[in-house]
Amino acid sequence: MATPAKPDHLDGLMTDPYGTYAQLRRTAPVRRITGPDGTPAWLVTRYADVRAALADQRFSVDKRHASPGSYRGFSLPPALDANMLNMDPPDHTRIRRLVVKAFTKQRVESLRAPVRRTADELLDAVEGAGRADLVAAYAAPLPITTICDLLGVPADHRRDFTDWTDALIAPDPAKPDRAKETVVAMLGFYTALIAEKRERPGEDLLSDLIAARDDGDRLGEDELTSLAFLLHFAGYENAVQLIGNAVLALLRHPDQLAALRADPARLPGAVEEFMRYDTSAVFSIRRFAREDVTIGGVTVPAGETVFLGLGSAGRDPDRFPEPERLDLTRDASGHLALGHGIHHCVGAPLARLELTTAIGALVERFPDLALGVPESELRWRPSMRARGLLALPVVF
Questions:
Q1: Longest dimension (CA), the chain
Q2: Contact (CB, 8 A) for 387 and 241
Q3: Are the CB atoms for 115 and 147 separated by under 8 Å?
Q4: Residues in a beta bridge with 8
């Protein structure tokens, strides 16, 4: 077998992701790159290839299939690593079935009024000032409140949740031990919370997951802790970035903002377009080739890591005409922002509810919403894992 090409450092993935994706789709749609920790991985950028690979069982999410020296993702203790994003069937099937039994459509729908109430309270708090950082004041506290309510986390721990997630999404180079300290803190918190819920169950998802059964099967202790971690981390991280990215997209396209105000019934379809246009999940969870796999005309050797470019797939002109244009009348169904196949996001209904509610409440409240700084001053998270703004100053 030929030696794979030396991986490329694609700095453009941080500074100009969509321009970089466009170039890669044209010239090297399956390309070997350097992963976030300096180890090699393959990046797939065309919609058709990404969608096919998401459903291809020759790609595994189980780290045991990774060859030495390949990118493996977060290094977590077993009590946080035993989650669905690291499992193939049949373990993945068993755990997802138990989660679905507890995380029902009815439970998600019951959150609609509380999420709207939280959105209104957050907007009440900034309305008098006439300006705000929408990330800090709105996009971040809305999902953290929602996920804490969903899991039954006491209100006085919500700030901890925000700090923990930020420390893992975009580690501070000046604090090399911060990520490890964060993992230890999270593990201790979840262990104690699960013990409390087991002794005194509440009307929350975590209590229901503890009680969930399927033909006598149940979640093990590490599986419970890992699942709580996954729901918190994904439930916060994705939502905060999606809200910020969607608001910025509207501010960049005032005609679409005006159209949404004129016809709020467009909002459900608009949410799909927001996710296609600028998704928070840059890549899917890393995959490992179980065998030599040819994708897009390129053979990925067994054991090597593959990133599937969800953000790039949403801007592929072969699937979405004029993809650089935000169009709230577009049929954006089929976008891959929430995945595809057996690992399609189990929290997708909640993500849609949060984004619909957050944008709807904001547009309704502030008819003169505008960017509060020149666009050149906006800064993005220094992360290849999640695309989102560090701050979004607005005036109204």
A1: 66
A2: yes
A3: no
A4: 33
